[in-house]
Structures are given as structure tokens and as C-alpha cells.
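2024-03-11 09:14:02 INFO receiving multi-entity request
2024-03-11 09:14:02 INFO entity count = two
2024-03-11 09:14:03 INFO echoing inputs for audit
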Amino acid sequence: MKLLIKKGRIIDPSQGIDQIGDLLVEEGIIKGIADDIPSDQYTKVFWAEEKWVLPGLVDIHVHLRDPGQEWKEDIETGTRAALYGGVLRVACMPNTVPPNDTPEITSYILKKAEEKGYVKVYPIGCITKGQKGEELTEFGRLKEAGVVAVSDDGKWVANSEVMKRALLYAKQFNLAVISHCEDPTLSQGGQINEGFFSAKLGLKGIPWSAEVSAVVRDLLLAKETRQPVHLAHLSCKEVITFLRWAKEENIPFTAETCPHYFYLTEKEVDGYNTLAKVNPPLRKEEDVLAIKEALKEGLIQVIASDHAPHSVLEKELEFSLAAPGMIGLQTLLPLSLSLVKEGWLNPLRLAECLITNPAKVINIEPPSFKSGKKAEFIVFDPNKQYVLEPTLIQSKSKNTPFLNKELQGITVLAVIGEKVWELNQPV
Amino acid sequence: MDLTSKPQHVLDIASLSSEEIKSFLELGEALKEILKRPIPKVPTLRGRLVVLLFYEPSTRTRFSFDRAAKALSADTLTFSAKGSSIEKGESLLDTVKNLEAIGAELVVIRHPMEGAPHFIAKHAHIPVVNAGDGTHEHPTQALLDLLTVKERLGDFSDIKVAILGDIKHSRVARSDILAFQKMGAKVYVSGPAHLLPTSLEEEYFRIYPGGFKVCYDPKEAIRDADVVIALRVQRERHGKPLIPSFTEYQTFFGLTFKELELIKKGALLMHPGPINWGVELSPEVEQYSFQVILDQVENGVAIRMAILLKLLTGGKTYEVTH
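2024-03-11 09:21:47 INFO inference complete, emitting structure
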């Protein structure tokens, strides 16, 4: 079968391409890009005028909740949400029940992803057994089973010696080390950003110093060991100074943020809105601005969703009892589009943050439009305006502050090999 | 049950306008007379059902609401966390839905978690009154404090109120700081530095320019004050002790005769209770302060009558003269 994408804006960060043109796919393989490719009667043509044609997004911060919390999400629904969001590769965090700290759990995830998954799944293993921060997991056996990175996501490895050992040992197996930067002695019991709204609502605040002090320690260990650390979901202004310092010092690191940290402020939690409860917390306008500047400056290179499904059982509760986190696979690209609309990044640089840079962190070859590669791409309509109604959401959980809110931009086509999905079409 | 009209709630001082506060005070003042009658009871709320939902231990506030409801002839049901389905793990939301189903017309809630009253107000079809939520607010306490000050001093303009103690973890402080400023008074707070609002938080507490000041020196807060509110040291609310010792607290932040010399003559010394004598208040000031503190308790009943009446009748039909 031949598939011809006509007159789209073709963006491929791995080749630095950003041009209007046609893309031809044959038998699930990229044939090439040209200004005008003629079609014949055997070709299925998809008109992509005013639309973006992008390699599939790579989201390296996703919670699939499988095994153990399948009422929130499972590998099938989570990867379907990814597909509908244009995310064709996901790396899933290890805080499942039980946590992914053994090759058996990794194998379970990969087997189920093979059978039921819509997109490719890359498991992330724990840094320490049971995420307890004490003993390292079997990095070698986990790698053999298929993990691409290690992280105690949700928990910072507070013992500095253990973290140092993890950085050194991970290098031997070419595993990325992803750190959830939060000093628990400063954040314990915290519910929202410390400041105006914690004063107003009487909720315990989480200060920015909890994030920054953890980042600085991790950067020092990266400098000392000469092993890279990936800093997950950065959220605050004060961290930027230290990223700049690390860059000047040539410290090996990569940094990530999520759309909610450059799109929302702490005022979303007013009225005790548990849908806006997330960790790290939503911060102030000045933090939002600083995160955008850091993306522009290249100090933060990765945008990930931190897709964190929770059911009403964990969200329709007293604020302090509600679980932190929001789903994000289907809003990742629409919200990130705001960076282009506001002039912070051009589409090519945005695509780097969503495709090539995250792939680099976990050492995989990103999807691309190079001839001979497997087709793995999406068509995205950046102009489409719509309301994010619950029926559009493919996750089992609907926990997002964007529920029933107006969004712009939606994925209309996804192609993986010979499989083609026309998505999000109006009914 | 009327599912169409939105019930009115009293959730926090932050969402009450100064006009609303004034009308509660006026009504409270008028209703206080009932409590002084030989038979201190009127039939206004006969047959109405008020539920007192207490997820935290309380004597004064619970009795006060109960007394207020009964003085208006309402029926009350009291749920305390101990000995109810709450112990069996029933969720707050289910509990409230069940209470509505058995005919509750108003819920008074005390809860250890901030925003619990707001959460049920979102889902309930009946008025919700916050009787203290975690470290957030305690609006009826602030209203009774206002009533006590109004009775004694007449007016709020040019009044300096000093609040001493653990401001950060005090729901009384959070409500009082806003309430006194909304009525035109100035509020100065002091206490151990780590238990005071940070500069980031001050922005929220300041209702008008010059209306709110954080003082590192307790003397600065109480000097020439018209009202001094000593907060209870909340031993039970901190996971671990946040002050080095009670002796240290009494020495540097407690109120003794020495401190009383600084405040204005005739100033009021208040406390939301229960008092830790020898910690925030030295026993030697008992004579000076205790009558006002008992007045606060009495005014508490009156102000809660006002709230029940207003929320259950829309404030339209109160006959207090017969």
C-alpha cells in the first residue's frame, strides 16, 4: 500500500527539515520527501494543507499504572491516549505496584505492550529496590530485560552516596539516570506552591528550595562522576541559574519540563481544585516565564507530559488526601504549541524538545523521515479549536485541569508502519 | 430538597464582604438578648434539622453551635469521628450525601483538612458552615471576636489588634487577620519567626495598605494595642515540636504583667481557647483577661445563632421580639 501525505508542513528535527511538501510511504516504509509527488490509483492520499507532518513524539515521562493500578490506567488505554496525542513512543515510570525493580516486571510490561499496546513502550526501572533509596537494583539484568533508564520517580534518592553509585554504575550499562528533584525534608506534607495561595488556603507549601537544592546536589554528583543526570519536570525560576552554571562548567546533564509548568500557574488550585494538585506544584507567573526562557535558551531541552492518571477515587477528596498528578498525553502537543504561538520556539525547535532530545536522553534512535526508515509519524492540525470533552479523552482517568476547556491543535492522523489511524475526527 | 437554588455558605472570612460581616454582627447583637431571657429560646427554627459534623475533638465550638441551634428551636444531630461510619472508612462525600438523605438542612463541619468544608459545599445542596478546617480558617471564631470587640470598644476604626503566637498554623489567626482589617482595624502579628507569614505570604494577608504588619519583636506588635489576641500553642497540630520548649515560649512570646504595661489602658486581652496557662498566657493575667475570654464564649453562641438563622431563612424572617 502506498500512502501519500500532500502539501503538509513537514518538520523533521533529526534532519533539520521544515518545508512544505509531500511525503510518500510504501508498505510502511518512508520513501522520501519532495515538493510534488504524483499519485496513482493505488495510492491513498491524505491532504495535509495547513497541517504539520511530524515524526511521532517521544514522551519519556509517562505513568501507565500497569501493573497494579489498572483502575487508573493500563498499558492498552495509556498507549491509546498516547496515540491520540501523537506520542508514538513512551517511556513509562517504574512506580507501579509492585514497582519495576526486577526484570520480571519489565518483561511483563514489554509483553503486554507487545500484545495490547498501540505505541512502542520503553520501561524505566527503579534506581533502588522498592524505591526505598537504599540498595541499587540490578541495572544489568534490568537492561537485558529492556529498560532504557533508571529512576526512583516520585522519590528523590536522598542518600547522596547511593545516587553517586547509581550514576557510576548506570554508565556501564548505558542507562540514563532520571532524577525527581525534591528534597523531602523541605517538601514533606506540602500540598501546593509555598506563597500566596498556601497562605490563603492554609495548605502546607512546597518551597522552590526543595527542588533547587536537590538539582544542585545532582549536578554536583554529575560533575564529580562525569556521568550525565536527567533532571525531570523542572518547575521553578530559581533552578535556571544553576542550569546555566552547569552548562558553563560543562557538567553532563539534560533537563525536562512539562506543559503545565509553562502553561498554568498556582492560581489553578484556588478553591481547593484537586485537578491542579501536582508534584512539583504549579508555581507563579514569573516561574512560568523563566521556564519558557530556559526552553528558548536551550537550558531545558526536553518537554514531557508526566502523564499521571488518577481516578475520581483519588481526586474527588479533601485536598490533602487527593493524589498529585494530571493526565497529559493528549494535551502535550496542543499545550506545547503555545510556545510557537508566543514566539519562544520555532516549530523545528519545538519538535526537537518533543522528539529528538528526549530520544537522546534514553539512547534510542528517534522516529524520522529518513528514506528507508519505518513510517512512524503524525499529522497535526495546529489551527483546530475544540473543547476537551471527557469523550475525547482516551485514558481511563479524566484528571486534567483542562477538562472541558478550550484547546488549540489536535492530532488528526497517526501512522506506524502499515497501520494508519485517522484520529479525533468530528462525529 | 431544593436542587435548583444555590445554598449560601459560611466557608471563610476571605469570601465574606465587609457588609456581610456587619450584618452577621448586627444580627448577633440582636439575638444575644434571647440568651438573657428567663426562657432563652424562640421557636423560629422549629422542626429544622442542623447536623454538627465533627472530625476533630472540640468542646467549645461544638457546644456553642448546639446551644445556638437549640436556642432557635432547631433539632441537632451530632456526629463525631469516633463511633460513626467515619471509623468504618466512609468518605466525607458519602457521609454528607447520607446526611442530606436523612433530612439535614444545614451542615456545620469541623475537619482536620484544609478545604474540607469547601469540598462538601461543592457537592451538597444545603448550606455548609465551616467550624474550623485544618490550618485554614475558623470564620465563626473571627465573627465572635469581632462582636466582642465591638461591644467593648464600639468601633473598629483606628483600632490596633495584635495577634501573638503561631500565626502560620492558626486558623483563628488566618480568619482574624482578614476579619479585623475588613472592618477597618489594623492588625499586627508576632511570634517565633518560623511560625510567621513569610514575605511571599504577606501579600495575601494585607487587605489594605498599612493594614497588616509582621513584627519580629513582639513588643512592637503589642505596644499601644487596643486588642491583644494570644493564640493557643498548637501542640497537637505539629508533627514534631516547632518550639524549643514551653519555658522558652513563655519567656519570649507569652503574655505576663510585664507585657501588659505596653498595651493601651483598657485594652482587651483575648484568647480563642482552650488556654495553655503558663505558656501563651501567664496565670497572673487571668484576673485581667478571663472575663473577656468568657464573653467571647457567650458571643460565640449569639453569632452562631445569627449564622444559622441567616442561612436557614435567607435572613428574611426573623422574629426575635416575641
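2024-03-11 09:21:48 INFO post-check: Confidence is low (pLDDT under 50) at residues 317-322 of chain B.
2024-03-11 09:21:48 INFO post-check: DSSP finds eleven helices and nine strands in chain B.
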